[in-house]
Amino acid sequence: MADLDFFFDPVCPWAWITSRWVTEVQTLRDYKVSWKFISLKILNQDTMDYASMPAGYKDVHAAGTSALRVAAKARSVVGNDAVAKVYTALGTSLHNRQERDLFVADLEGHIAGLLKSAELPVEWASAVYDETFDRLIADETAIALERAGKDVGTPIITFNPGGLKEVSFFGPVISTIPRGENATKLWDAIETIATSSDMAELKRSLRARPSFD
Q1: What is the 3-state secondary structure (H, E, C) of 161-197?
Q2: Cα distance between residue 98 and residue 83, in whole Å
């Protein structure tokens, strides 16, 4: 059983930063993460006015959901560890190397190149067109919203999934990736706050620009 469920859409920069913090803590602590899916396309389909958003926003969200199909294919063939590897390849390209234009322009071809570089099966890239994974993506998106509420974004994390002390929250949204002792100190603080029976929400709208270093 996992110690943490992490719901991600690969195109979300804030989820990417939080995920790298989570993987940093994984190297320092003995715990397991289950990588799960949440689609920004589904999340925003009834509420976001894409016409008022920056150009390409809708295309990026659609591409993110198609990329989740590749992660779902990886899970179906190999399992959770493969999802983590696919997410790492996607996120590094999208955020660290800022290759969103390539991602949208040639989704299958670009992902095939990423899979090859990560020594993963290149044929998984064709899953970007496989709509049979859409039910799974929609179902896991629904689970995330059932756990954390509807007026949230990504990431959503669940501490102690399936346990007596299961609790889910949106975030934490962090602008830089904590490393080493700073990573574990933040982890302990967030876990303490999140699992407190009295804690409902801690939020502000001010954010620094995301840094992926």
Answers
A1: CCCCCCEEEECCCCCCCCCHHHHHHHHHHHHHHHCCC
A2: 21
Neighbour tally for 100: CB within 10 Å: 16
For the chain, percent helix, then strand, then coil, each to nearest 5?
55, 10, 35
- The residue type found at 173 is V
The residues pairing with 167 across neighbouring beta strands, listed in sequence order, are 159
In the 8-state DSSP scheme, what is residue 106?
T
Residuewise pLDDT in 10s, the chain (213 residues)? 789 999 999 999 999 999 999 999 999 998 899 999 999 999 877 666 666 666 666 888 889 999 999 999 999 999 999 999 999 999 999 999 999 999 999 999 999 999 999 999 999 999 999 999 999 999 999 999 999 988 888 999 999 999 888 999 998 999 999 999 999 999 999 988 888 767 766 676 767 788 888
CB atoms within 10 A of CB 170: 21
Cα 157 to Cα 171: distance, rounded to the nearest angstrom? 7
- DSSP-assigned letters across all residues of 38-62: --HHHHHTTT--GGGSPTTHHHHHH
